[in-house]
Structure formats: structure tokens, C-alpha cells
């Protein structure tokens, strides 16, 4: 690859207004980690925080740590740190459970805010858990699940019979961004609530729930929020819906006063009414460090850097690796923080790259997917990744039998 590319990338890194974030992450020197859209990098601070929590707060403080170490109020602090990345207010955000569980709670609660309507609309191309959950919620409520092939087909599926539209903001395969403001407006024009899955957005894109007018949202804590494997997820409900919002899983942590041990149920104020049971404290602390590691960067800055990184990657792949096809939108404004490359040998390609220190992932049947987490990926990493991609394509790695062996997690 031309020396020119490397020096141009160095200049882009030098001018990057959020370059300071990278030092907050513990990344191996010899790795180009392009999978932060699946599992974010570890914040440096997480090791110390979790070690202290295990050793002192759990080991010595024991039950007292719920008060003394602030475990009980940790979800509220995380929600306050997360809210600006969502374009929401802190009391509209709750940190709890998994994305799948939060989606179920919000689909049911949302549909109940629109009594008399008979359908939920979801998208077939969305992450499968979203479809499974939407189907189950629809079955439970006796509603029809109306599916569309992609976001472009959504407006035609919206009418006065639809209660909730549930959509992923970013296509998990191609990285294509749906028009959240436009589709939310289309939903509202038909009296439909708009629920966004922001798993591939928050921490990488300019999410603006207030600006979009969105009603409800969910998303993962372990991707661009860097909360660690299996970190808790979040759920968001616009303030105008709080009064009527009833979770179908009203565990005691969703009660206004859990320690009143009241046999009667009074929901907590705000989005906290969407919590359920005791939070997984150690995972919660990982998420606290993950969200803290993004402080100081705005969603606009994160999105601009993601666009810059993916644009450089697309440009270099176009120039130097013409045997792979770009399977993501070419317009950077329509692309999330990831780029998918289509290649008939995509699985061995991902394995061969990993063996040479470039980590991406594989999505069946023929996509090699690369995430460019704007908080810690540098422009020079993009150049290095394409150099190694070129080397893999030039060698005989793709036919090596060990790279054809499918692992459980791809
Ligand atoms: C868009 C999207 N939604 C939901 C999930 C799954 O969420 P969880 O397994 O945390 O419930 C994923 C996982 O990758 C995802 O990409």
C-alpha cells in the first residue's frame, strides 16, 4: 500500500478531535480490532473498578455495599451518562436486563398504549432476536405481526391498525442506516408508536431520540458502549408516555419503593418503571466504565469519525482489493460504523485476517464484517487492516483447512 496512504492517515489521526479517547481503552498493540460492533474494547479503568468491587465491595463490604459502595444507585448514574449519547433525558433511560428482554417489555407496554389496534410492524432484515421477540409479543397480545423486507417498505405497512413499529436503526449485516426521523414521523402520522433498536448506533452514531421524536428505544451495552461481555442493556421511553407505561414484567426493581415490600404495586417514576429484578452488579460496573469512557465526545463527533473511518476503508478496499465487493451503502451518511465485504470465502477470510491480527466477524452466508468503533480505532488502523487484507488475498490462506472449520461463535 502506498506510503501516501499511511501519511494521510497519520494526518487524519493528528487532526481527530476525539483521538484522546483511545488511551482510555486497553487494546493489544499487535491487534487491529474491528469488532467493537460485537464486543467493545475494555476500558482501562474497568480492570481496577471490577477488581475493587470483587475484592473490597463484595469481599468485605458484602450486603452493605448496596448502600456504601452505591450499587443501588449505579443504574441511575449510568443512565445519566448514557442519556446525552441517546439524545434523551436521564429519567427517560433505564439500564437493565438484555436488549431482547427490554424489547419484549417495550413492545408489550407500547402496544398497550394503543388499545384497539391489531398489529405490530417489524422488519425481516433486522437482527433475528427482534423478530423472535416481536412474534412472541404479538402472539401474547393476540396481535398480527406484519413484517416488511426492509425500512423502505415500512411506510406502506403503517395504518390505523398498527400499534407499534419496531425497527433496527442500523442493519446488522450491511450497516445501512434507516431514516429514523422520517420513519418515526411516518409512524406518528398513522398514530403508531416508533420503537428503535439502537444496538449498532449508540456510542458510534448521532442518535437523537428527542430530535427524531421517537417514542421508545432499546440497545446493547456491550457493543459501542464497551460495557463488557453480556453487559446490561438499556431501554428508553419518552417522557410523554411515562404515566401510562406498564411493563409486562413488573419486578420489584420497577416499583416506586422496592424496600417498602408493598404487596400492592406502584410503578417507579420515569423509565425506571421498566426495570425488573436485581441488576447484575459486576456487569453493571463494567458498563459504568464503558459509558464513562465515552464522556467528552458528542454523538456528532463519534458519528463524524465513524464516517471518516469507514469512508477510508471503502476507498482503500476499492483501490487495492477489487476482488471483494462492498456490501454496505457507499454514501457515508447512510452507513453506520461498520462495513461489510462480500466474498464467497468470507468465513476463511475472517479467520485468516484474525490469524494475522485483524479481527472482524463473519455473517452467513458470505459477509466479512468490520466495525470501526470511533472511540478507539485510528485511521492508521484502517490502512493496516487493508494492507493485511491485501496480503491475505494474495496468499493461499483462504484454502487452508484450519480456516474453514466453523466455530460456534462466528
Ligand atoms: C440489533 C441487535 N439487537 C439485539 C441484539 C441482541 O441483544 P441481546 O442478546 O443482548 O439480548 C443484538 C446482538 O448482537 C443486535 O445486534
TrEMBL record:
In short, the EC number is 3.7.1.3
Q: Where are the transmembrane segments?
A: none
Per UniProt, the enzyme's principal EC class comes to: hydrolase
Q: In which pathway does it act?
A: Cofactor biosynthesis; NAD(+) biosynthesis; quinolinate from L-kynurenine: step 2/3; Amino-acid degradation; L-kynurenine degradation; L-alanine and anthranilate from L-kynurenine: step 1/1
Taxonomy, superkingdom = Bacteria
Q: Which reaction does it catalyse?
A: L-kynurenine + H2O = anthranilate + L-alanine + H(+); 3-hydroxy-L-kynurenine + H2O = 3-hydroxyanthranilate + L-alanine + H(+)
How does this chain assemble? Homodimer.
HAMAP family tied to this protein: Kynureninase
| Protein name, UniProt field | Kynureninase
What does the organism's lineage look like at the top? Bacteria, Bacillati, Actinomycetota, Actinomycetes, Pseudonocardiales
